[in-house]
Amino acid sequence: MNKTYGCIFDIQRFSLHDGPGIRTTIFFKGCNLRCFWCHNPESINLQPEIQVYAHKCIHCGKCITVCPQNAIYKNGSSFVFSRDLCMKCGKCVDSCYTNARVMAGKTVSASEVMSEIMKDEPFYNDNQGGVTFSGGEPMLQPGFLKTLLVACKEKKIHTAVDTAGNVAFEKFAEIAPYTDLFLYDIKCVDEKKHKQVTGSNNKKILANLVLLDEIAKEIIIRIPIIPGMNDTDEDMHAIGILLRNLKKVTKVQLLPFHNMAESKYESMGMEYKAKDLSAPKKERMQQFASIISSYDINAIAIS
Amino acid sequence: MENGFTYSQRLEALLSAKRIQTEKKIAKFGRTIDVDDRGNLVVPDDFVFSPVPNHSSGGFFGPYACGMNYKKLLHEHPVTVDENTGLLGSWMVMLIDYKKPLWNPDIRFTHLHKEQKMYDIVHGIGGVQHFLADYSLGLQLGFNGIREKIRFYEKSSDASKKEFYYGLNECVAGIYDYITRHIARARELAEQINDKDRSDNLNILADMNEELLKRPARTFHEAVQWMAWFLVAGDMYNGGASAIGDIDRILKPYYDNDVRQGILTEEQAIFYICNFLIIDNAYCQIGGCDEFGKDNTNELSHIVLEAVHKMKIPASVCVRVHENIDKDFFYKSVKYLLTDRTGSPNFIGDKAMTEGFMRNGYSRELAVTRVKCGCHWCAIPGKEYTLNDIVKINFVAVFDTAFKDMMNSGNQPSVQLLWDTFVRHINRAVKVTAEGMDFQIEHMHEVFPELLMDLLCEGPIEKGMDASNGALEYINLCVDGAGLAVVADSFAALEKRIEINNQLTWGQIDQALKNNYDGYEDIRLMMKNSDHYGNGGTIADTYAQKIVKEFVTAVKKEPTPNGHNMIPGLFSWANTIPMGKAVGATPNGRLAFTPISHGANPLPGFKDSGALTAMANAVASVQCGYGNTVPIQLEINPVTLKGEEGIATMMTFIYAYLNKMGGTLMNINIMDKEKLLDAHKDPSKYPELIVRVTGFCAYFALLSEDFRKLVVDRMINE
């Protein structure tokens, strides 16, 4: 385990929304979809990168003095950070007094992750809680993921993998024996629209879901409700039809869009395309849940 | 029926009278009441009490003067009877409030002053009560039995005990007088009102109380009434006896008997318990197990829980959790915690408390009888003198002393040298604390003996000796440390910034601290943004564990010079504000004179997210291990834990922390952040908002701004 490395950007303990019970969620870095509303923009790239929180900066200029690339410089009273010049050495992060500059993502060994997971082991309570591997897309680091899953099962810890499903099915087959629960994200059923809003078509995603239904222990479907993307009754009917014959799907969770990621986009120097969207109304979320439920599926709107 | 006389209507009327009292308190005292809401009524402006002094300082000291003045106070104190009540009993002021000066100036401890100040030790000299009376014993004897017992032992005692017995007799006479005046008032009120139900009720209560002056309680109603009297009497002396302990065990025989005879319904029982807790918000434990691990939960455990749930007033009821805890009872207690949002109940872990106490050399059989009865503490009813929660060492002051000591020593500063110096001072601070506690046990009885508690303990009446003077079978003195996180984070920041990263020098830090970081904001931020205790596995976590280990070793390596056992714990109560005011800037980026960290809790904001389990791990890792608590204080936004899933999650969390991780006590605020912030701006908008401050709960609107801020700051960083 000491020799298997991966790139993660966060470990969240006392996580209550990524599967049953009290969980520790490991966020893998790197994703092969480009959903324009992504709530975790720091998860997209596979490599570590620097985030800058301007409101925390005290303009001491320490970062300028330590940067070997001269990637940070003063322009009048404001600081400019040239990401093209940056080689992500992290010296500016280490020297920052206020944590205004932080490194999103770090390379860690599987055993380091396991020791963090084991800290909350008493709370996992006989499989009512456990560990969730999320991201990003955890299945883009299959070796690292499998090592962690196997290690968790050796400790009899409940495991969940949160995936968008856009990988070869063999990857699923590899990890399914060690995965107690798949949290499977579906954006929309319409292929063209899917391509438009995520940059990829959904053929593989939908096909994998059907195949996974044969080998998985349990699947929970998660659907982000994004205004203008999938917030029509028709979208929900399509999802209902897609899911109605699946055997392992125990629950569908509808997750409302939120724009709390805005500061993260700023910190990454990225454009936030979903900035002007507003969260769907509670009643609407309930309606969507009842549409899916009408296909004899247990659907819940999460608030 | 608007003016009906059902139990729920009466309870509503009693609660509305309590609301009026709360409003009166705000009007009279402003927002300055930084202690538990004890159920005392507001004293009329024209009430004047002048104690009779027996000393040139104007004070009154010793059993004779204290007993006599207590009787005088009870005779002059106004009596109040509510027409809806199910129990007689009311109180407004305490004798201790009129005890000026508190300590006899002839009995000096100037030899301890210098070091007590240097380490900012809350020394406990002059500290009252904070141990537990034995209510089972009291119920068995009744007031008349207590009087007879005093007479019996007084007869065969020598002249040296005369003053002590005089004091006890005066106290009992005072209680008789006070109850008799309540009876008279009840009869008078019964005459005045034109409501037959209420009038009959008052006469029944008067009759019952007349009986209770002659004989012990026989029914559940009588037993609760008797306990209410003793609580009130104890509070009016020195705020003492305001704890019951395991109320479900104590009242069980009376409950069973009445139910068997068909004279008590569950509704009545809940009403009496409500009434009882309105009169005096007593610290109680419910649940727990016997020495064989068999669950103690009974009908009374549920009834007490229901009473607290029904009223939603500040309460001090604690659930004792163990591996075989009744699932329904545990579920209900967690559900009420999450939905009532009054900070009640809190949860104590039987495993760590019992096994820890046994490490002092006691049997399991005895250890399980040591029950929760104060903010953060347990005691054996009637048999143990403890000084719980009134002796504290400010770790931050000890650190500050060590830092200055090292910088002035002429030696090359280093974290290792600082650590060695700190350890030396911790040992010295414990020693000075121990000497102070011996002094208390030698002299307190000459100043303000525990006459009320003496009545319900084993030993004082028998030996003619005060509980504070060594009359009880066990003496286990509580020594708490405070400010752990500030010191752990300070050590970690120094090690990281000076010795690991070579970013700063000792001289720079020294200058920054001396100037309270004025002109050194960059250094302050750098120190503040270093490792924090609580994240697990950081340098700061290692320091926190090392500090506690040294503290525990210092407390346990030998008893006090007079041979009394000490038990370590970590709890700052609400002393975080005054303790902060005693110490200058610290290397963790804390500014001078600002509050220190709470008990063993990490500093607010120590972690961005997922802080609950991280905090639980951290506090579990710094338990002192000898049966006194190292509580964890948690602030939880209710949106985190909703519905049945929320209850299940919280049950898992509490169960794991207390049964698997060695945790001792959990104090939990379920608090809507927006509401709290709004209430902080204008407390009058939320007169009934209840918060858990530390070991106690209080109306938010009654707290001072400093205290409100304390709670708000914790919540903001949740």
Oligomer: heterodimer
Number of helices of chain A: 10
Q: What is the H/E order of chain A?
A: EEEHEEHEEHEHEHEHHEHEHHE
SS strand fraction of chain A: 15-25%
* SS element count, helices of chain B: 26
Q: Helicity level of chain A, as a percent range?
A: 25-40%
The tally of domains of chain A stands at: 2
What does the main sheet of chain A amount to? Answer: 9 strands, mixed
Structure characterization notes:
The complex is a heterodimer of chains A (303) and B (718). By secondary structure, chain A is an alpha/beta fold. Chain A is built from ten helices and 13 strands. In chain A, helix 3 packs parallel to helix 4 and helix 8 (233-243) packs parallel to helix 10 (282-293). Chain B is α/β, with parallel strands linked by helices. The model of chain B has no long low-confidence stretch (mean pLDDT 95). Chain B has 26 helices and 15 strands. In chain B, the strands form four sheets. Chain B has a six-stranded mixed sheet with strand order 2-3-4-5-13-12. In chain B, strands 1, 8, 9, 10 and 11 form a five-stranded mixed sheet that branches. Chain B has a two-stranded antiparallel ribbon with strand order 6-7. Chain A binds chain B through residues 11-16, 21-22, 24, 58, 60, 62, 94-99, 115-116, 119-120, 122-123, 125, 128-129, and chain B through 501, 503, 521-522, 525-526, 529, 536-537, 609-614, 616-617, 640-641, 648-649, 652-653, 655-657, 660-661.
